[in-house]
What we know:
The protein is an alpha+beta fold. It has one helix at 24-39, and strands spanning 11-12, 19-22, 70-71, 84-87. It has one domain (11-87). The protein contains one helix and four strands, in the order ββαββ. Zinc ion is lined by residues 13, 15, 17, 61, 63-64, 66.
Amino acid sequence: MSxxxxxxxxxxxxxxxxxxxxxxxxxxxxxxxxRAYLATLSAEDRRGWSPEGPSVEKxxxxxxxxxxxxxARAEDCPDGATTNPVVxxx
Length: 90
Ligand SMILES: [Zn+2]
């Protein structure tokens, strides 16, 4: 998902990238949903996806790959910024 502005519970890493938090259960549900969807596609339609497909292990900071976050402040994330989900239940 992308295009979300920072919701209240979004964390942010020290590296400067803003992410939004989901629980591990939410991430697992989304991964299962995406895997089921990808299974309906032809090999050609799956070309844009990595061979290993969706994984909860990918719910980390897209900037640095880390998993430690601090709460974001409103000014951390400009309107219209693209953010990605990370597993964070802190
Ligand atoms: Zn980072």
